[in-house]
């Protein structure tokens, strides 16, 4: 009888340990996914800040840093929350920030930019060309910049440069092809830096 009781106690303890192990594993997996989502959100936020500076004016590097803040803040705020609650908090904050970027840049330019950060150049170009046809001047300019950056990032600089005359027509801050070239190079360097900061490949294969 005593042996049976000991066996039952051991069995119960083993069940508890297994359950705890499963809970810890699930919690860790959820936190990992939430953290990855926050990181990707920060990448797109930083790139969005950069393109916002190209469209509305300002320092490209500083704007990228400001754009990344919400992604980093999301992770920090959600750090004290566990499980599904953490994931929901992160998603809610990211959704709010994404909607702000979409409002500023237009949904097509934003989608093109998100694809560009992930090295999906053909997808980025498709969205960018659609955005460039928008009646909204800011959306059209954002689309044109995403198109230029997608070509340059995919090592098709000649195609990017061929768009400079169109860019000069719609971007009041760009007055010459040499200025467009300089701005494009700074933006591409910042894009690569953003990827590297968030442990993504700096350049696309």
Would you give an account of this structure?
The structure is a single chain. The protein is mostly helical and 205 residues long. The protein has one domain (2-197). It has nine helices and no strands. The chain has helices at residues 2-56, 60-78, 83-105, 107-117, 121-132, 137-153, 157-162, 164-170, 177-197. The termini are far apart. The model is unreliable at 6-38 and 66-79 (pLDDT under 50).
Structural class: mainly alpha
Whole-number tally of structural domains = 1
Beta strands, count: 0
**Measured on Cα atoms, how large is the radius of gyration?**
23 Å
Query: What is the percent of helical residues?
Result: over 70%
* Unreliable sequence segments: 6-38, 66-79
H/E topology pattern: HHHHHHHHH
DSSP strand (E) fraction?
A: under 5%
Shape: globular
Biggest sheet layout: none
Kindly state the mean pLDDT as a whole number? 76
User: How many separate helices?
Assistant: 9
């Amino acid at each position: 009888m005593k042996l049976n009781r000991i066996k039952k106690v051991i069995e119960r303890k083993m069940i508890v340990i297994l359950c705890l192990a499963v809970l810890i594993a699930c919690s860790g997996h959820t936190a990992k996914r939430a953290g990855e989502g926050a990181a990707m959100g920060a990448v797109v936020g930083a790139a969005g800040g950069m393109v916002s500076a190209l469209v509305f004016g300002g320092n490209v590097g500083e704007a990228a840093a400001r754009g990344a803040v919400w992604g980093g803040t999301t992770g920090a705020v959600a750090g004290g929350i566990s499980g599904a609650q953490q994931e929901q908090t992160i998603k809610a904050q990211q959704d709010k920030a994404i909607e702000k970027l979409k409002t500023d840049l237009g949904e097509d330019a934003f989608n093109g930019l998100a694809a560009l950060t992930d090295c999906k150049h053909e997808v980025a170009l498709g969205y960018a060309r659609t955005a460039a046809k928008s009646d909204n001047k800011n959306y059209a300019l954002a689309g044109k910049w995403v198109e230029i950056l997608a070509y340059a990032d995919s090592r098709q600089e000649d195609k990017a440069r061929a768009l400079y005359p169109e860019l000069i027509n719609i971007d009041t801050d760009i007055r010459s092809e040499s200025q467009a070239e300089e701005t494009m190079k700074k933006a591409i360097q910042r894009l690569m830096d953003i990827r590297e900061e968030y442990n993504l490949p700096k350049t696309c294969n």
